[in-house]
Design goal:
- There is one protein chain.
- This protein is of the alpha/beta class and 358 residues long.
- Helices cover 38% and strands 20% of the residues.
- It has 13 helices and 14 strands.
- It has a six-stranded parallel β-sheet. Strands 3-2-1-14 form a four-stranded antiparallel β-sheet. Strands 11-4-13-12 form a four-stranded mixed β-sheet.
- The longest helix is centred in the first third of the chain and has 21 residues.
Amino acid sequence: MTITKAESWILRFPSNRLAAERADEAFELIGVTLTDSSGEQGTGWTFTSDYGGGRAIKALLDDVLLERVLQREAMEVRVLNGELFHFTHRLGHGISSMAIAAIDVALWDLHARLQGISIAKALGQVRDRVPCYGSGKASPVLPMDELVETSVQYIRDGLNAVKVRVGREPAEDPRRLAAVREALGPTPRIMVDANERLGLEAALSLGRKLVEHDIYWFEEPLYAHDLDGYRRFRAEMPIAVAAGEHFHSRRSFFHFATRGCLDILQPDLCFVGGYTEALKVAELADGLGLAVAPHFMTVLHIHLAAATPRSSWLEFYPFMDDILVHDLKVEDGHILVPERPGHGVEFTEEAWTTWKSA
């Protein structure tokens, strides 16, 4: 089956209030729909938030990349991924890796649909459920009582772990974490995420204060690419260190993972170049005995995590609930792997009519 049509699109919709730091915060899905000679279709996407950079990614897709998949075999996913990375090498990583990710996800979706199986099975599924933690309802600007309530609600909904964002006001974070821990009790795990807000000394100071609240991991305490800073932070901090969502290739993960910077690798397949590249990150983690916890975009990452033996936790961030036909199923603290062909994601008709952007 050859690819006969390739189209791009953007869906732009507002962020959930519980996650947002500004009233006008929004997400963009920059997507690709591929059609093969049998009429079967595959869809994939990457995303941006806040900055409206979707048009730059779409321009790269429309002007450069999509024509390179036309008339190619739909099953040549890995071959095409490698060719696109080689072709865009001199553009650097970033926008090019994100554009490739949209194509790669669409190719895997088409590949799996042609076989009538899920992407998880196409990738080599090893389990039918993945542990998850509640995320996305812990904006650092939420009042403390609302932060506590949203964290407790995740536990009421059957999850066993939650993530809280820190670093905006480090002086207040220990008090906020203490309130969450008191409300949850000693058993649920709590992760914290500073979203790259802190310098090394501030991160160390905050980390030492949070230790008493039994924090499971400290995510992105520093600027994403501060290799020396992460190496020092991990050496001095008795909390697992997680990062990697802002890396755009497996090579960045290699440098951090082999230099003692991280305990948990957090690839985001929408940034790193799709399932094909994210699988290589997972293989790197497996070889080094490190854990993998994919970042964000739960509806896509459930398939990666199901095929990755070293996946420890999956981020349950239901920011797309209002635009999806099918919800993910959560049972006893785990997300069940969808069995629908491909990734199984369908956007509502209202999403296309309301949020589609030129």
